[in-house]
Amino acid sequence: MNGLKLPEEFRELILDLQEGRKQAPVPRHAATVVLLRDRDGIEVFMLRRVSSMAFAPGAYVFPGGSVDARDAEYEAGEDWTAWGAAFGATPELAKELVCAAVRETFEEAHVLLAGPSADRIVEDTAPFEADRLALLDRSQSLASFLTARDLVLRSDLLRPWAHWITPAIEPKRYDTRFFMAALPDGQRALDVSTEADKVAWVRPAEALERATAGELFMLPPTVATLQDLTRFKDVAEVLASPREVYVHEPVGRIVDGDPYLVLPDDEHRLKYSDHYGE
């Protein structure tokens, strides 16, 4: 069994959910972006969530967050149907997820996947700091920011990678699509997130070793993503890799009398048709 033993206090919750005495919270749609760069091999940008966060305090994560209702406002000639097919989503939700991915990456890492045209990208994000702050306090939407600055969202720089749903035993749940993206030339990922107290560029294998040693706390989706990345020699190979996205949803179970979080593996992954219906 591919699983993680849970503290004893989860036993009652797991049984309550299994027997219908409690209902799991509805997960919120979210987007996560795994920023990559080449430094004699792949490095990935990670943030440590502040200890005061309600969800996963102290965990090392990738930039990302919930979809904002105004992420749907962006209008452009994108093929949202293709994005929806990649992620098992409607075209409208696919647009929101891509826009959330771009917005959250800018808000949390100061990396902006946009440019003055469909074949150019911003090289210096410093002039847009006031815009980033306006996105953070929600006084400006991504669409209004891009329009005011005559910028075009560069969804072509993102690659669909994975889909994880927070287990039902968690009080806060997210239905998260993972994207891969290369750090754009000329841009720097910065420590600007109000939700993180530390950032670092790390090699996937090193991050996994430190997690195993107990130095870094990570959630299962983060670990799985890092494990995926150890198979590639450089960023170009990652972005060019064919990818079939599955739904992964860890489940709380009582196994041999003990509470466990059972993790999805290759034999138990769910395709979109299985999870959502045809």
UniProtKB/TrEMBL annotation:
Highest taxon of source: Bacteria
Residues annotated as domain Nudix hydrolase: 27-224
Residue stretches in coiled coil: none
InterPro entries xrefs: NUDIX_hydrolase-like_dom_sf (IPR015797), NUDIX_hydrolase_dom (IPR000086), NUDT19 (IPR039121)
CDD domains: NUDIX_AcylCoAdiphos_Nudt19
Needed cofactors: Mn(2+); Mg(2+)
Keywords: Hydrolase, Magnesium, Manganese, Metal-binding
PANTHER family associated with the record: ACYL-COENZYME A DIPHOSPHATASE NUDT19 (PTHR12318:SF0), TESTOSTERONE-REGULATED PROTEIN RP2 (PTHR12318)
Protein name as catalogued: Nudix hydrolase domain-containing protein
